[in-house]
Amino acid sequence: MLRDADLSRLARLIAKELEALSRFEPALLSAADIAREYGLTRGWVYKHARELGGQRMGSGPKARLRFRAAEVRQRLNDLQIAEPAFVSSLDSGHRPAELLPIGPRGRGAATVERTKR
């Protein structure tokens, strides 16, 4: 059985390890990861990959694009400070979907239209 002092020391060690793990960031992130993290579309991230520090993994036409999280965060901050118009382009990268009108189809549609009048 552990003494209180040993339990306390163990708790501090576990807390220290958990704190270190919470600061862990994956080395490279995909465009989808960046889009999800910042509320953008993948298309916007691809369009602005150069400004965000994106790097191609390979030389082919379909080479994957990867980003470093800390670099993206810094570049987004720098771009917002340097170019106020950039902030509005961030907002335009994530648009709500337009909903399609839903209503009755077929024969019943005419009946519903007549009852609305």
What are the defining features of this structure?
117 residues; mainly alpha; Multidrug-efflux Transporter Regulator, Chain: A, Domain 2; two-stranded antiparallel sheet; elongated
Question: What topology does this entry show?
Answer:
Elements: H1 4-22, H2 31-38, H3 42-47, H4 49-52, E1 55-57, E2 64-66, H5 69-82, H6 84-92, H7 107-116
Antiparallel strand pairs: 1-2
Helix pairs in contact: 5-6
Describe this structure in words.
This protein is mainly α and 117 residues long. It has a domain at 14-92: Multidrug-efflux Transporter Regulator, Chain: A, Domain 2. Helix content is 60%, strand content 5%. It is built from seven helices and two strands. The protein has helices spanning 4-22, 31-38, 42-47, 49-52, 69-82, 84-92, 107-116, and strands spanning 55-57, 64-66. The protein has a two-stranded antiparallel ribbon with strand order 1-2. The longest helix has 19 residues, at 4-22. It is elongated, with a radius of gyration of 25 Å. The model has no long low-confidence stretch (mean pLDDT 76).
